[in-house]
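Summary for the steering committee. The consortium agreed at its last meeting that each partner would contribute one worked example illustrating the joint modelling workflow. Our contribution is presented below. We chose a case with several input lines so that the handling of multiple components could be demonstrated. No manual editing was applied between input and output; the record is shown as generated.
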Amino acid sequence: MASIVPISQSVGANRIIPTVAIPHPLGNPALSPGEELEVRRKLVDKALTALQTDVTEQTVF
Amino acid sequence: MAYKVIHYINQFFGGIGGEEMADRRPEVRGGAVGPGLAFNKALGGQAEIAATIICGDNYCVGHQEEVARLITDTVAQYQAEALVAGPAFNAGRYGMACGLAASSAEAAGLPSLTAMYRENPGLEVYKAGAYILPTTDNARGMGQAVPAMAAFLLKLLSGQKPGDAGTEGYFERGVRVNTFYPEVGAERAVTMLLKKIKGQDFKTEYRMPVFDRVTPRPGVRNLAQATIALVTSGGIVPKGNPDHIAASSARNYGAYEIGDLMDLTSDQFQTAHGGYDQTYANQDPDRVLPVDVLRQMEKEGKIGRLYHTYYSTVGNGTAVANARKWGEEIGARLKNEGVEAVILTST
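What follows is the complete predicted structure of the assembly.
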């Protein structure tokens, strides 16, 4: 889970989830606490889906 | 008449501010700013900085197409004949930004170059698209970097085709150029082989690329039974940073128990990372390490268990060799403990 996808690709990560922003990859201080939690949950959900998915090469979810 | 050059720099070298200004939108100023003054001196009147583009590093990596467009527009507006970016040293996002600037200008047909430290992630991403010269890992190397960059830029501007990477000193771009040799390939190969057998030095004509790739593991089959661990390079540590993980060029990592914590709070956790604005991570460390959400999912039965310990370091100018070693250690420890999958978060 990272904000600069080309770096994740260049270091060889196989399952990549693009995130919100560099200083707050899994949050967004501009949102209300409830909305922010929802954003984080969606991203982690995506990560769990990625972990369950068979991939044959580097994949951005 | 002096050649006109556009210079790309970030918010820090532009004198606007540090991490708190990393989201700053790009601006174009006439003439030289910051390191541009040293460039003007090194260019010795043969070329000069016509305008400087200053852009926040976060903004640039988040808006690459927009910044690339601004670069080509600025070149056109000032009728510039070349572009120079940086130098970026070992600043990762700045390296990405400088690589983007130099490669966009080159793609538009303009002589261009940048410079950075050999471990800057911008190098791997952009070396095929731009001339990138080596620098030291920090700005103390400005005094050597600028004259070398200026000399190379003048060479490009004079229309001379640069020689190969080894001779000219730029990082290999992975471009093959036809060359005539007095001996045929078979003779050269045998000569090389004989040298190798004798244990003598030899120089290959085509280096095989080294890809740091691993075969992907199959997907997790039964998530509801699986133990998931968290690992981060975002520097989340217990308050006070007990293992003294350095804000940049970290030399260690930490293992921290989260026991039955439901949530990472600002009174117990903080970030030790010196490469991004810490405000948001310190307000709520779950913004970097999502313990709260994984606890919810554990409770709902979506995952089996969140592993009781997380691993953390600071990914900011960290030596690649160290990072690789720590990754192997952490992976082995987690595997031993029966952890089935890991979520890595990075800032």
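Chain A has one domain: 5-60. Chain A touches chain B at residues 1-4, 6-8, 10-15, 19, 21-27, 29, 37, 40-41, 43-44, 47-48, 51-58 (CB under 8 Å).
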